[in-house]
Amino acid sequence: MMSFPGRRKPVFAAARGSARSENESPAAGSSRLRELRPRLKGRLLFVRGFLEHPREVASIVPSSRFAEQRILKLAEVSSAQSVVELGPGTGGTTCAILRALPREGRLLSIEINPAFHAMLGQIEDPRLIAHPGSAEGLRDALVRYGLPAPQAIISGIPFSTMNRTVACGILETVAEVLAPGGRFVAYQVRDHVHRLCRQYLGPARVEMELLNIPPLRVFQWEKNGVSLRRTNAAHSFYSR
Ligand SMILES: C[S@@+](CC[C@H](N)C(=O)[O-])C[C@H]1O[C@@H](n2cnc3c(N)ncnc32)[C@H](O)[C@@H]1O
């Protein structure tokens, strides 16, 4: 389902074949409807996911286009060869990353919610690896798919509602596996992630995105070649 060589633009399978030509105006309405369907389905699924697991999903609607653009810019996705996304949800942010990612880039998306993961499996783009499970398995997933140290890690997972030990474990792994000079970008309503991640990557650059429901803080760290706590693990996460 995921591999369609030669296709660059990420697209949900349900929307395939819906591109509009100049001469098809009578069908244009139904064509646009077909394109909207997977987005609408994603939004409904997202709301249901939130109602079932409010602490895990932590937001009733997916991130806005404005938030997506801010995240992509801070993560410098357009110049990254290897990107990881933690908590992709139903795929809105995933598609935005794929649109910005270079042709030869790879994106590993790790999602804990099985229904959301199933939706990600419908994205037709050979650069995407959709991995089911917790962000706690980040290191193992990189090894499993033979991916290099990521130049950008983007996270929407809710560190504020997560067990502190689990949250710190994930952030420590992020700091270790990130390539030297790589960016970690986390978007959150609150600043827990900033307080927790300081010990691993130092203070963050913080931007506010007001055009999102609710407004978001977007934190960016850049790894200086060595992580603050585990200097020997900075260059090779395979060494542990
Ligand atoms: C706030 S939503 C972000 C969704 C999407 N990226 C967006 O911005 O619209 C948080 C997502 O993180 C996922 N999540 C929560 N804890 C997780 C974990 N430990 N590992 C992986 N995904 C997790 C949730 O299922 C949800 O899809």
What does this structure look like?
The protein is α/β, with parallel strands linked by helices and 240 residues long. The chain has a single domain (63-239), classed as Rossmann fold. 38% of the residues lie in helices and 18% in strands. The protein has helices spanning 25-52, 54-57, 65-75, 92-100, 114-120, 138-144, 164-177, 192-201, and strands at 11-12, 82-86, 106-111, 123-124, 128-132, 152-155, 183-188, 205-209, 216-222. A seven-stranded mixed beta sheet has the order 5-3-2-6-7-9-8, sandwiched between helices. A hairpin with a 6-residue loop joins strand 8 (205-209) and strand 9. The longest helix has 28 residues, at 25-52. It is globular, with a radius of gyration of 18 Å. The model is unreliable at 1-7, 17-22 and 225-240 (pLDDT under 50). S-adenosylmethionine binds at residues 56-59, 62-63, 86-89, 92-93, 110-113, 116, 134-135, 156-158.
- The fold-level CATH name is Rossmann fold
Shape assignment: globular
List how many beta strands DSSP finds.
9
Number of domains: 1
Bound molecules: S-adenosylmethionine
List keywords for this structure.
disordered C terminus, about 40% helix, Rossmann fold, 9 strands, binds S-adenosylmethionine, disordered N terminus, two-stranded antiparallel ribbon, alpha/beta, about 240 residues, seven-stranded mixed β-sheet
List the helices and strands and how they pair.
Blueprint (H helix, E strand, L loop, with lengths): L10 E2 L12 H28 L1 H4 L7 H11 L6 E5 L5 H9 L5 E6 L2 H7 L2 E2 L3 E5 L5 H7 L7 E4 L8 H14 L5 E6 L3 H10 L3 E5 L6 E7 L18
Parallel strand pairs: 2-3, 2-6, 3-5, 6-7
Antiparallel strand pairs: 1-4, 7-9, 8-9
